[in-house]
Amino acid sequence: MAADKAVLFVDGRYTLQARTQVDTGLFEILQVPGHRPSRWIAEHLAEGDAVGYDVNLHTVSEIARLSKALEESGIALKPLGANPIDGLWADRPAPPDGPAYPHGLAFAGRSAEEKIADVQETLKSAKADALLVTMLDSVAWLFNIRGSDIKHLPVVIASAIVPVEGRPTLFIDPKKLGDNVRGALADTVEFLPPSELDSRLEALGNRKVTVTLDPSTTPARFENALKEAGAEILHRTDPCIAAKAVKTAAEIAGARAAHLRDGAAVVRFLAWLDEAAQDGGIDEVQAAGKLESFRADTGELKEISFDSISAAGPNGAVVHYRPMAATARKLEPESLYLIDSGAQYEDGTTDITRTVAIGQPTPEMRRHYTLVLKGHIAVSKARFPEKTRGQDLDPLARLPLWQAGLDYDHGTGHGVGSFLSVHEGPQRLSRTGTVELKPGVILSNEPGYYREGEYGIRIENLILVTEPQAIEGGEREMMGFETLTLAPYDFRLIEPMLLTSEELAWLNAYHARVRETLEPLLDEAEISWLAKATAALQ
Fold this sequence. Notes:
Mean pLDDT: 95
CATH architecture of the largest domain: Alpha-Beta Complex
Number of helices: 17
CATH class of the largest domain: Alpha Beta
Strand content: 15-25%
Number of strands: 25
Strand order of the largest sheet: 10-9-8-6-11-12
Shape: globular
Structural class: alpha+beta
Helix content: 25-40%
Radius of gyration: 25 Å
Oligomer: single chain
């Protein structure tokens, strides 16, 4: 029995962070996928032992995989009636109570009625009677509603049952519903409080119907309740996931408008940073706050899309570093500063990373930055056929680093929602990105390099998958990427001698586009700064 042992499993993004924020005297920190929770449990528990789990926090798939892995060792998984940690959480905040509100057709591009009809056609094809939807961004997308229940994510806590015919039921706190949402969905949706969900699941089971749910996203308790009541379970991927990944024409237009607005705010910030940070008087929290203020000045900012990763010097090597006021590091001369941030606008979600030299960078910094830039450009200018997956393109970003004996321990890119989650599936650019890329999908392109204890480098733009087009002299039409993000790279960190003529041409063309597109939104001093920041490199 491992009653005196505890372990925290993290992936490569959090390895360094965990060492500084977790009591390593209590917790052993292990990185996945090199270390697996099932293997650790099998090594530290004995046959006949049991591991408890919270049915609300683990998905159907997670529990199935872990049960199978532990079965050989004779170790059982047991659902807990209550989570013991909840009992210790004395100062737990009250549930969020922000209102839901409609996400208009001008932004969404498709009505809730159309989306629901598509889902019901999917159910007919699968010969299923109903779909259980528990993913918050799927609920928000399906019903064209937004909220503020999750920090930085404009969703409302709710779930839904969609029958193969008739009106769906949306389980949502009645206090969150105003006349705006009720009016928009009155003829389409039945509203019930969340407390009624269990009885509706039981009713489905009593009728012995077939209920579809996504095992990779649905908490285990819902499947358990349906099975106990007698329902047949059909495991299928949540149909909302793939549908919301492919943006409508309205969402694509919104993304372009959001990035234009956001690009101007980022340029104002970079110009300010060049002047304000050179003497070492600015810290990480102040810098992040300044960027948020420039976004707020647009008058369109709803929220930032995640806690800004504002990392000076060695903190840049902590991939998901979050600055705290009490420990914020100054942006010191002769160092690198990494700022990964984004915004939620009603017409789009942004996510951008820029690495900036504070003072004079070293030759080593310039070399590493340029290697990362080469991979970033390779993805940006890629052309690829239909059925290409994210894992097929991920090596393009890594090859310059690999050739130098370097790499990074995170994916190259993730999907991005439309005024929804800044991390959206199913598409991704990574070794595990097995989903085919489709026109209309938005991804991030963010290779990096991290030298522990010294600095981190990451460069990120959002990119839109374009329709297949003919290539002169070619035989097959190819898809590609449209770069949505508009902001200069730090020319002080670029070593032109390491770039090919094609890479230089792409870089200079991108900088010319940034300059010409953003100048009308800037004042005279900002225009002057941008002209220098985007001057052509030879």
